[in-house]
Amino acid sequence: MKGQIIRVISNLYTVKIDEQLYGCRARGKFRKDNITPMVGDNVLIDIDENIITDILPRKNELERPVIANVDAAIIVTSLKKPNLDLNLLDKLISIVTYNNIEPAIVLTKADLISDESKKITEELKNYYEMIGIKVFYNTDVAEIIKFVRNKIVVLAGQTGAGKSSLLNRLDDSLDIETNEISEALGRGKHTTRHVELYKIGDGFIADTPGFSALDLKGIDKENLKYTFVEFHNGECKFRDCLHKKEIGCKVKEMVENKEILKSRYDNYLKFLEELEK
Ligand code: ZN
Q1: What pLDDT score does 240 carry?
Q2: How far apart are CA 177 and CA 164, in angstroms?
């Protein structure tokens, strides 16, 4: 029967088939072939033996946390304490996009900012939405639950941005410790292999923070520009253009005309520099 792995604790896998959960072990053959079933895997199980017999092809897989078939990443972004970090936000958007995962943004701590900052935040929100990224406030519970529908979602974002609070807000029966889940990494339950998907509405959110290694590793500098989706609209006439110092570059023109957000372009140049090192 076909199901999906929603929890791994050491070598014990919980497989969900419709609303039923089955505790399973992996077929010995996997270890011999050096294959490890992952949370998010679509699998075939032998119900009589409680054994995972096959892993269906994955659309993607993350290393940290170890999850397969991730559809979206919610980048939890604090507006204050810690302060809004657009560099980190854009970096996460690039990493996520590069991995064929849909980015979305959840803004937290809007109650701590001034009216002036609220106006700027709204403008930023409009810009990111204009380039096709969903942006929510953490109070938009119904909208976030709707976004998660039929998806496997990971949370990303800086420590203290409110990832665990967001999970609790989305489902108050979860009662996750509000000290940041990322701080638990490498300690406690994370000393044994433990990854779990929480059912939120009709979708799943992983309990461990995604992309804890916040680097651009794996993206080559020629491909970085494709993770800034709004650069495509520019149809820069030079196909190899890095949109850096090239004369006649359409992307640079769009930045000057304020069609591309200056901070986005500046972050692009910073990431490019990081990748060139
Ligand atoms: Zn260009």
Answers
A1: 86
A2: 7
Backbone angles phi, psi at 166, to 5 degrees: -65, -45
What is the token pair recorded at 99?
A: 């991995």
For residue 231, the CA-to-ligand 1 centroid distance in Å is 8
88 C-alpha to ligand 1 centroid (Å): 23
Q: Give the contacts of 33 (CB within 8 A, at least 6 positions apart).
A: none
Please give the structure tokens belonging to residue 72: 């979206």
38 close to 67: Cβ distance less than 8 angstroms: yes
Which residues neighbour ligand 1 (ion) by CB within 5 Å? 236, 241, 243, 249, 251
| pLDDT mean for each 10 residues of the chain (277 residues) | 94 93 93 90 96 95 85 95 94 91 96 97 98 97 97 89 89 68 43 79 80 70 93 77 91 94 97 92
**CA–centroid distance, residue 228 to ligand 1 (Å):** 12
Q: Please tell me the chain's helix, strand, coil percentages from 3-state DSSP, rounded to the nearest 5.
A: 35, 25, 40
The residue assigned the tokens 């992983």 is 206
